[in-house]
Amino acid sequence: MNLSRVTIKNNKAKWGGGIYNCANLTMEDSIIASNTATRNCGGIKNTWYAYTKLSKVVVKDNKAKEENGGIGIYADSTVVIEDCSIIDNVAGNDGGGISIGARGILYLYRSVITGNTAKNGGGIMNNNTAYIDDFSISNMISNNPNNFAGNPHIPA
Question: Are β-strands 51-60 and 19-21 bridged in parallel, bridged antiparallel, or unpaired?
Answer without folding.
Answer: unpaired
